[in-house]
């Protein structure tokens, strides 16, 4: 059985508070989010995960 491979549309790491691009340093109390969008066939999946 072959698994279908997805095609990543974008991946972005942003500050949770203002959704601006993450500068690479997580300060105390600051949270960042990884945003991902990808196509699997005709289906577009959008997801995110919070890092702190």
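-> sequence recovered:
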């Amino acid at each position: 059985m072959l698994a279908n491979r997805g095609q990543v549309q974008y991946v972005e790491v942003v500050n949770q508070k203002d959704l601006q691009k993450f500068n690479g340093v997580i300060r105390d109390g600051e949270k960042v989010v990884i945003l991902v969008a990808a196509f699997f066939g005709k289906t577009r999946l959008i997801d995110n995960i919070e890092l702190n």
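The mean pLDDT is 89.
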